[in-house]
């Protein structure tokens, strides 16, 4: 393949990769590396096309493709820094290109071989610095990160070989753009570098997008779980609310929660009226702690000063009563300054094991009736019943007063 064809191949690959970077930028607008990469490829493609025509049409304009080539790698350095979320400066982009242009200035009267070696030394340094940047910023587990660093390291090595060639044959150079025997090999390396670096960069961008989408999905799921948890919790006490328990009631009954207790703090309006809602809220929180929910006892705040317990296992009535009697002690310990003891009344209904099909609202209404019996009986007491599977009057388990 002749040299001009290789220049065209490099230029076309540059343009194709520029469109790939444009597509990546369309999906990731917040990343400034993509415009820099697009600009770098367009500048480099322009330099490669000029390398084809300048020697034949205007040899004195050799400064233009050389300066553009250095500028393109300067823009790639900027893209690499932005791609790695590292700080960057325009001085590092324009200073090498300006120095490359200065090498062609007539006052310096530098020989073609010296300029050739100097230009390739600048390019080797730029490619090496970019390779080092990608190596330092490589992402664990990403082969593309290593491939990107390797692509620039190979290009840097090729430029170094051109520097050595320029120094070895310094006096034999008659043009700034020598069409020597090693140029085709250098251009083949350039094609490999351009293709590999572009593909690896786009691959890393895809990997980042995949990770970002996964993180966003996980974050959304976590938020949804938190919202669901918050929607099923009472803001003040942290206990479950009615929505949480009612939606799972059939499942809970099937799982053995066969006793419901409804309790209400006695004369609680007096607490709020006398001490204010702040101390009243503190008393409600203390009540929630006294109810001591565990694996076999679920506590629910129904609203205001009313709570519900769902219990399973043996001695449900005794365990519910123990919690009811713990309420005055807990409030007295946790909320100093209250005048008098805050007691609680409770109604409790025990279901026979294996009963299914009962609705939460029906059991709640029946248990709430027992609560009102406890209040009408003088408060600060428990009234309970056991429901039978047979159609006979329920057997009253008894009334307990503190």
TrEMBL record:
The keyword Transmembrane applies. Its EC number is 2.7.7.65. The keyword Transmembrane applies. PROSITE patterns: GGDEF. CDD domains: GGDEF. Keywords: Membrane, Transmembrane, Transmembrane helix. Residues 256-387 form the GGDEF domain. InterPro entries: Diguanylate_Cyclase, GGDEF_dom, Nucleotide_cyclase, Rev_trsase/Diguanyl_cyclase. It is an enzyme of class 2 (transferase). It catalyses: 2 GTP = 3',3'-c-di-GMP + 2 diphosphate. The chain crosses the membrane at residues 6-25, 32-54, 60-77, 89-108, 114-134, 146-164, 184-206. NCBIfam families: GGDEF (TIGR00254). This is diguanylate cyclase. It comes from Pelagerythrobacter marinus.
